[in-house]
């Protein structure tokens, strides 16, 4: 961790560790979250949260939009290079963004001090999850959630 702070590429290992959470191999998840925890306590909070908060938001966006990955084409006269580039982009299995988001939320338990500092961002994501996921399955509570969200937005302005 000390070496990471001395370079311009402080966040690259953290981004890599977040990427490992996409791998569908449960034995990797807890040790990876421990390494992410060490980055949470070792990096400056703003550097850490810029990456981790962005990953939480991107996971929500991918879940909401159900984006499919588009295979880009490359114009070249070398057919082998074009073939390699297209095959490199193909996924054998689709990333599980719901599990990824769950693991990122689980990681927040390991560094509650940082989550507390970023309460505004975390509560916004939590309310968004509550509104989109929970309300989808409980339509009777939709009006209550809408009024609660309006009250919280008013409180945030003060």
From TrEMBL:
Listed GO CC annotations: 90S preribosome; small-subunit processome
Superkingdom classification of source: Eukaryota
Stored InterPro entries: SSU_processome_comp_20
Protein name: Uncharacterized protein
Organism: Henosepilachna vigintioctopunctata
Native organism taxonomy: Eukaryota, Metazoa, Ecdysozoa, Arthropoda, Hexapoda
């Amino acid at each position: 961790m000390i070496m990471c702070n001395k370079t311009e590429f402080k966040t690259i290992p953290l981004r890599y560790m977040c990427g490992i959470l996409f791998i569908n191999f449960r034995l990797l998840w807890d040790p990876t979250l421990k390494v992410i925890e060490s980055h949470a306590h070792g990096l400056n909070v703003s550097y850490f949260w810029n990456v981790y908060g962005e990953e939480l938001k991107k996971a929500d966006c991918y879940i909401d939009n159900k984006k499919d990955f588009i295979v880009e084409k490359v114009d070249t006269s070398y057919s082998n290079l074009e073939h390699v580039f297209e095959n490199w982009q193909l996924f054998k299995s689709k990333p599980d963004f719901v599990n990824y988001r769950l693991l990122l939320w689980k990681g927040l338990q390991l560094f509650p001090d940082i989550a507390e500092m970023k309460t505004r961002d975390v509560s916004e994501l939590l309310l968004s999850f509550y509104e989109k996921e929970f309300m989808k399955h409980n339509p009777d509570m939709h009006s209550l959630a809408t009024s609660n969200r309006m009250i919280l937005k008013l409180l945030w302005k003060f």
